[in-house]
Amino acid sequence: MSEKIWVITDVAQGRWLPEFLWPQGPESGPSPDSNGQGNASVRRRTLRGGPSEGVDVIEIDNGRLSVSVLPSRGMGIWRGSFEGIPLGWASPVSMPVHPSLVNLTERGGLGWLSGFNELLCRCGLESNGPPGVDIIPNNQGTPTQTALTLHGRIANIPAHYVEVRIDSEEPGKIAVTGIVDETLLFGPRLRLRSTVETTVGSNQLTVIDEITNLRASPAEFQLLYHTNFGPPFLEQDARFVAPIIEVAPRDGEAVKGIDEFARFRAPTTGFVEQVYFFDLAADAQGETLALLRNAAGDKGVSLHFNKQQLPCFSLWKNEQAEADGYVTGLEPATNFPNLKTFERQQGRVVTLQPGETYQTRLELQVHHTAEAVKRIESQIGTLQQSHTPTVHCEPQSKYSG
């Protein structure tokens, strides 16, 4: 059998490996990819000092593509690189922040931002979207006002179980799985089982998530993938490309940029974020994709996902000065990032039955040549052929609360 499994964290069994490194020797199996390009590796380490004290990092390197997974922060992905090209963005929060130092309720429920710097960060699971008030039954069944904080809790909960799996047969699969529980007495009991996997020598990373309702009664959940990119993909005249059926600005600020929603500007001091909501076209199986490419069209990153799992898509444009966080977010989700009460009214809040599991699959690909970028644009063009995009110049009631 070619697959090997190492359990490196298991709180229930009292198991903890302070350090892990693969390969450890000849018995680990071959690590060069099929083209002989570099060596693959997996390393687990713990950050020390400052707000990063105690944050666990698992560094996955397939020989060309590398990412740093954060089990301490809900299995988010801090940063990465592909053949020397950086993936991620330069957040004002420069290093991973231990969840114990993130007060989600500060600044009127915006405290989530004090730990936000990831390439991929999940928003959910009980809720995502802006701070606000929801009305839900309390433990006695009485409707009660409950404060919701920005983008929920899952990104600030450590995994209690983590394992590494290696399949040394060609092309060679590397996978890291973590389990994170978002639970509360008289509240939600939601479990995230997340697997981050790649194959040796490839240009892609796949995130497979399973969200399970552990309660004995039905439970709502929301999930949004905040995937964030800065230079070299984001720059003056970079482009967003997707098979668009419909796009609408979130609010009045986004209205100002609707004529150029797909084009990016250089870092701009004082820029106010703009958000656009999309209905994307998909193939017969529900598969769709979105691309961010640089101005020259010779570098790009694309997200591939199934619209039946993640039917909503948002584009976050935050073209501030670089010191303030020059970044754009490509955000597939189960819902749009509005207040949960509005999303519930629109029928976009998923309800899981007792023991039911909801699965999502998100694939990130990096393209480092003009030919590779053109191939992805061609795929998008094929999906776009059957649809003339509808571009709304004002917020639409079905999209924005």
Account of the 3D structure:
The protein is mainly beta. Helices cover 7% and strands 42% of the residues. It has a single domain (3-391), classed as Beta-galactosidase, Chain A, domain 5, CATH 2.70.98.10. The chain has helices spanning 106-109, 252-255, 340-345, 370-384; strands spanning 3-10, 15-16, 20-22, 41-46, 56-61, 65-70, 76-82, 85-87, 120-125, 132-137, 143-148, 161-167, 173-183, 189-199, 204-213, 219-229, 239-241, 244-249, 274-280, 287-293, 300-306, 312-318, 327-333, 350-352, 357-367, 390-391. It has a ten-stranded antiparallel sheet, covered by helices on one side. Strands 9, 16, 18, 19, 22, 23, 24 and 26 form an eight-stranded mixed sheet that branches. A six-stranded antiparallel sheet has the order 3-4-5-6-7-8, with no helix packed on it. Residues 26-37 have low confidence and may be disordered.
Overview in brief:
The chain has four helices and 26 strands.
First and last CA, distance: 53 Å
Fraction of residues in helices?
A: under 10%
Determine the CATH topology.
Beta-galactosidase, Chain A, domain 5
In CATH, what is the class?
A: Mainly Beta
Low-confidence stretches: 26-37
**Element-level helix/strand string:** EEEEEEEEHEEEEEEEEEEHEEEEEHEEHE
Q: How big is the Rg? A: 21 Å
Count, helices: 4
Find the structural class using helix and strand composition: mainly beta
Q: What sort of overall outline do the alpha carbons produce when their principal axes are compared?
A: globular
Strand order of the largest sheet: 2-1-12-13-14-15-25-21-20-17
Q: What is the count of β-strands?
A: 26
- Sheet with the most strands, sense and barrel status: 10 strands, antiparallel
Number of folding domains? 1
The proportion of strand residues reads 35-45%
Which architecture does the CATH hierarchy give at level 2?
Distorted Sandwich
Mean pLDDT over the residues = 95
